């Protein structure tokens, strides 16, 4: 077809240029392509540089096109080469290495350069911009030796740089000329919330300051401002803005204003010379963000490939701040004027802010802070200048019911050619085709094939919604199951977040981790209460309203509204005094039934709620914890004290174990058995920890259960001395406390983790075992008998146990 | 009316429970806000009917007859309070304490009792049970 291919030269090996080339390659093979870039790298994702700076991603992570890709596409790549000039007469591209490349068409995609303020001291070596890998590396180096950094500019780049440097351990001050941050993307309200959050994260701000001099002779020592103030610093990042890189274009005699002037098809003032991306100026506007680059590239690719295309009409700009943990979004007009109708919702507690601006009933702009989950939808509505309707209002302000359903409808109504991934220009249809025609079923497959979600990741929710919509019930779970419907986080993720973020109470966990129901439900509240007690022994303040009912009351509710009281009887042994007390109290309070329980204790069934404190007081025995996710009972056989077959003193050891571990919060109820000989009369095989004595010591079994799902315990280990037995039980219980899910019995826990895993963690890893024992000992210091505690705290016990009775009725 | 005398030093703080002269006639003082623990129901008895009062986390109050909407449910007072919702302690039915209506997929309703806070005093409208 094309015997001799036309020569296409791309100047600039960045996202805009390569994005355009990718589009062209999909449309035609008529070009022999040469790419010349001055950075010594393949095309990488510049948007993610801030992650490389903060160290959460490596250079390799952000590469978009590998060398193999260039080879496969037959592209000749010259890196580390700077183009100096285009000879538009001879149609040659001339480089700094003295080479000349002939072209039929040439695309300039030289991007932008950081705006270096022309102030005294700007030339010092400790002053850098924040634009490319080299800048990142310089900043990472600086953080190793220097302490104080000043970032000039409180815009997108400046804040990302500041956060990155702070993460590297520097003291960072952001100096901003204007009175609020990111004034080109955010309104004052959102900017203030952002500033407060960043201050909380340790970044300082100087607002309304104009930097006039960078102080220092050979090394930076500080900044001087127009008002005379001085800021000490040894490193300066200039992030005051970017300006289109028009060097090549101006050397080549193209028409330039702020940027390279292009028409609606990205043509410059000279024939066969095109420009795309941040270096261009279209209808008076220069864009410094990624989405417009794609829209421009798409028009250019079609035009240059001879495919009919709509002209480029400019872009609605939207922004997402890429600082971990802070969601900020804006699109379109975000500064109110009298012409706007404003829908605004600020929530100081959840620290979220949402503003939607209407003009003549149409959605023209939006700002989100704290929760940017509606960003994809708002971006689309702003781009379409959609008419605000009651339905849309309800959806956007969350005044209607379930959001998930509404969201999928929004996907349904999306046009086929609508762009889902703005970074890589992936339409809804492309994604739908992947699923329907190529049978893809996972986000990763779609990402690999189309590039959607690959760059900034902001479109991930929409892609997932499309998958859900197209695949219906066959879709993989949109997100994994959380511990309840209030959250999508698993037990392990929640525990990790509590540790990482230092969360100290249930309300804070729900708030920070984005609980869907503000105060949780009966599934998550007791679970979180347990995880906090487990993680923060002594310091976490118990929340009785998050305990399951029986634990809150310290007694078992029966179906007739009365309670069962079961006092502790260590090792199943009682005394005549205790039996007498039980008898007396039972008579006095009209106990309905006295029963020996399955765990060798005595239950007093049928105690009125209001009598509970008196019963406890008069019994004067410790709580038997028959109601709790805690150690219930240690069942024993008679053992060597009396039994003819007994080889070990199971009674004494059983009672000691019960005293040692009682009252500690555990993921679920927990039962021991201690046997004096292998005849196993106390049934060790169905207990969480079953202990069997023999002539030389003890054998320990774990994970047994005689309940709903019967399971025989697994042999765990053998120990020789009583001390070893206590230590091993301590380590097992603490490991279960730390890794078990709330309500997960040891039978399920052993099956989930695997016996070998648990053996490894406890038997083989001596240091770990020692640490587990120390932690359980610490936790055990804080336990207290709940009956005694209740009797002491009269106010709480009155509120919990006594009916309020109006003295008189009116 | 039932009365219970002191048990082991616990008093009923009767002084808090003085009836208040009330123009509407059916409002009854049942105690101070402090008598109610956040998110834990407290029962009191009027005309042999158990009424449970909940103090929500925003310190507003809700009251209802202490009887589950679910035939297998437990006393509402033992339920878990989340925002303005109450979960039945035995059956986990979710009830809106603003309307008394059980949330889908379950169906039913509980009987709410008007309750108000006057300064620190908690008052209920006892006409529901008289």
Mean of pLDDT of chain A: 88
Helicity level of chain B, as a percent range?
under 10%
**SS element count, helices of chain B:** 0
Q: Which percent band covers the strand fraction of chain B?
A: 25-35%
In whole angstroms, how far apart are the ends of chain A?
A: 100 Å
| Largest interface: chains, residues each | A-B, 37 and 53 residues
Counting DSSP E segments of at least 2 residues, the number of strands of chain A comes to 36
SS content category of chain B? mainly beta
Which structural category fits the helices and strands of chain A?
A: alpha/beta
Please indicate the percent range of residues of chain A in DSSP E strands (runs of 2 or more). 15-25%
What's the shape of chain B?
Answer: globular
What does this structure look like?
The complex is a heterodimer of chains A (810) and B (130). In chain A, a hairpin with a 5-residue loop joins β30 and β31. With 810 residues, chain A is α/β, with parallel strands linked by helices. In chain A, 34% of the residues lie in helices and 20% in strands. The longest helix of chain A has 18 residues. Chain B contains no helices and 10 strands. The N terminus of chain B is likely disordered. Chain B is mainly beta.
Topology:
The complex is a heterodimer of chains A (810) and B (130).
Chain A (H helix, E strand, L loop, with lengths): L5 E6 L3 H13 L3 E7 L11 H6 L12 H6 L3 E4 L3 E5 L4 E4 L4 E3 L2 E4 L3 E3 L12 E2 L4 H13 L2 E5 L3 H12 L3 E6 L11 H13 L3 E4 L3 E5 L6 E4 L4 E3 L2 E4 L3 E3 L2 H5 L8 E3 L10 E3 L4 E3 L7 H15 L13 E3 L7 E5 L8 E7 L4 E8 L2 E8 L5 H10 L5 H8 L5 H10 L6 E3 L4 E2 H9 L6 H8 L9 H12 L19 H11 L4 H7 L11 H12 L13 H5 L2 E2 L5 E3 L10 H13 L4 E4 L5 E6 L4 H8 L11 E6 L13 H12 L8 E6 L13 E6 L2 E6 L11 E6 L2 H18 L6 H8 L1 H10 L1 H15 L5 H7 L1 H8 L9
Parallel strand pairs in A: 1-2, 1-7, 2-3, 7-19, 9-16, 10-11, 10-16, 11-12, 18-20, 32-33, 33-34
Antiparallel strand pairs in A: 4-5, 5-6, 8-17, 13-14, 14-15, 21-22, 22-25, 23-24, 24-25, 26-27, 28-29, 29-31, 30-31, 34-35, 35-36
Chain B lengths: L26 E6 L9 E5 L2 E7 L5 E5 L14 E3 L2 E3 L6 E3 L15 E2 L1 E4 L2 E5 L5
Antiparallel strand pairs in B: 1-10, 2-3, 3-4, 4-8, 5-6, 6-7, 9-10
């Amino acid at each position: 077809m094309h015997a001799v291919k036309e020569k296409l030269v791309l100047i600039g090996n960045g996202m805009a240029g390569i994005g355009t080339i990718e589009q062209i390659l999909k449309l035609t093979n008529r070009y022999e392509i040469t790419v010349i870039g001055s950075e010594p790298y393949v095309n990488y994702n510049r948007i993610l540089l801030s992650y490389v700076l903060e160290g959460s991603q490596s250079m390799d992570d952000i590469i978009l096109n590998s060398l193999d890709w260039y080879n496969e596409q037959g592209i000749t790549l010259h890196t580390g080469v700077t183009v100096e000039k285009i000879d538009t007469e001879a149609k040659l591209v001339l480089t700094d290495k003295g080479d000349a490349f002939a072209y039929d068409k040439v695309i300039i995609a030289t991007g932008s350069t950081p705006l270096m303020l022309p102030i005294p001291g700007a030339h010092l070596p400790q002053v850098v911009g924040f634009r490319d890998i080299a800048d990142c590396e310089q900043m990472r180096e600086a953080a190793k030796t220097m302490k104080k950094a000043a970032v000039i500019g409180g815009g997108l780049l400046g804040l990302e740089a500041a956060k990155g440097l702070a993460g590297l351990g520097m003291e960072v001050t952001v100096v901003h000329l204007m009175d609020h941050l990111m004034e080109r993307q955010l309104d004052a309200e959102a900017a203030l919330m952002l500033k407060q959050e960043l201050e909380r994260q340790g970044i300082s701000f100087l607002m309304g300051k104009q930097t006039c001099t960078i102080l220092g002779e050979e090394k930076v020592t500080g900044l001087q401002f127009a008002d005379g103030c001085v800021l000490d610093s040894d490193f300066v990042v200039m992030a005051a803005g970017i300006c289109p890189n028009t060097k090549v274009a101006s050397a080549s005699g193209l028409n330039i204003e702020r940027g390279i002037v292009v028409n609606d098809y990205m043509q410059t003032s000279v024939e066969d010379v095109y420009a795309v991306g941040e270096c261009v100026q279209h209808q008076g506007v220069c864009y410094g963000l990624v989405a417009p680059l794609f829209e421009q590239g798409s028009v250019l690719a079609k035009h240059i490939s001879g495919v009919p295309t709509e002209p480029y009409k400019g872009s609605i700009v939207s922004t997402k701040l890429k600082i971990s943990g802070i969601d900020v979004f804006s699109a379109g007009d975000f500064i109110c004027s009298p012409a706007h109708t404003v829908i605004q919702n600020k929530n100081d507690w959840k620290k979220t802010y949402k503003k939607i601006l209407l003009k003549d009933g149409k959605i023209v702009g939006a700002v989100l802070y704290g929760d940017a989950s509606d960003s994809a939808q708002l971006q689309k509505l702003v781009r379409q200048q959609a008419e605000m309707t009651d339905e849309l209002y309800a959806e956007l302000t969350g005044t209607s019911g379930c959001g998930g359903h509404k969201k999928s409808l929004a996907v349904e109504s999306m046009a086929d050619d609508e762009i889902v991934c703005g970074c890589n220009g992936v339409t809804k249809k492309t994604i739908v085709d992947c699923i329907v025609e190529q049978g893809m079923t996972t986000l990763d497959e779609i990402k690999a094939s189309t590039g959607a979600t690959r760059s900034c990741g902001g479109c991930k929710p929409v892609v997932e919604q499309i998958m859900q919509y197209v695949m219906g019930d066959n879709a993989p779970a949109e997100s994994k199951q959380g511990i309840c419907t209030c959250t999508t986080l698993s037990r392990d993720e929640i525990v990790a977040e509590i540790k990482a973020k230092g969360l100290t109470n249930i309300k804070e966990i729900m708030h920070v981790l984005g609980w869907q129901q503000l105060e949780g439900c009966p599934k998550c509240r007791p679970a979180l209460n347990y995880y906090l007690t487990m993680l923060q022994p002594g310091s976490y303040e118990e929340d009785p309203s998050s305990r399951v009912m029986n634990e809150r009351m310290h007694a078992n509710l029966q179906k007739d509204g009365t309670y069962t009281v079961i006092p502790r009887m260590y090792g199943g042994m009682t005394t005549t005094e205790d039996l007498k007390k039980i008898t007396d109290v039972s008579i006095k309070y009209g106990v309905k039934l006295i029963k020996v329980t399955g765990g060798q204790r005595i239950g007093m069934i049928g105690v009125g709620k209001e009598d509970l404190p008196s019963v406890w007081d008069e019994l004067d025995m410790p709580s038997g914890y028959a109601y709790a996710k805690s150690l219930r009972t240690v069942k024993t056989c008679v053992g060597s004290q009396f039994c003819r077959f007994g080889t070990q003193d199971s009674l004494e050891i059983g009672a000691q174990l019960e005293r040692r571990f009682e009252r500690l919060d555990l993921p679920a109820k927990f039962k021991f058995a201690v046997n004096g000989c292998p005849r196993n009369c106390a049934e060790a095989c169905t207990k969480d920890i079953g202990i069997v004595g023999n002539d030389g010591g003890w054998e320990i079994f774990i994970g047994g259960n005689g309940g709903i799902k019967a399971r025989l315990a697994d042999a765990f280990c053998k120990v020789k001395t009583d001390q070893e037995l206590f230590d091993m039980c301590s380590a097992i219980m603490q490991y279960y406390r730390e890794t078990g899910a709330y309500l997960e019995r040891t039978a399920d826990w052993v099956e989930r983790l695997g016996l070998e895993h648990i053996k490894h963690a406890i038997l083989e890893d001596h240091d770990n075992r020692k640490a587990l024992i120390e932690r359980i000992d610490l936790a055990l210091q804080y336990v207290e008998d709940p009956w005694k505690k209740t009797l002491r705290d009269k106010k709480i016990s009155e509120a919990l146990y006594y009916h309020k009775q109006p003295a008189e009725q009116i | 009316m039932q009365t219970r005398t002191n048990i082991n030093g616990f008093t009923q703080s009767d002084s808090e429970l003085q009836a208040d002269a009330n123009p509407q006639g059916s409002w009854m003082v049942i105690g101070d806000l402090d008598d109610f623990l956040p998110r834990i129901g407290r029962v009191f008895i009027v005309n042999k009917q158990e009424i449970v009062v909940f103090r929500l986390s925003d310190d507003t109050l809700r009251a209802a007859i202490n009887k589950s909407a679910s035939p297998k449910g437990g006393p509402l007072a033992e339920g878990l309070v989340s925002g303005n919702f109450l979960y039945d302690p035995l059956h986990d039915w979710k009830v809106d304490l603003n309307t008394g209506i059980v949330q889908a997929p379950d169906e039913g309703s509980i009987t709410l009792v008007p309750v108000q806070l006057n300064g620190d005093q908690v008052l209920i409208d006892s006409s529901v049970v008289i």
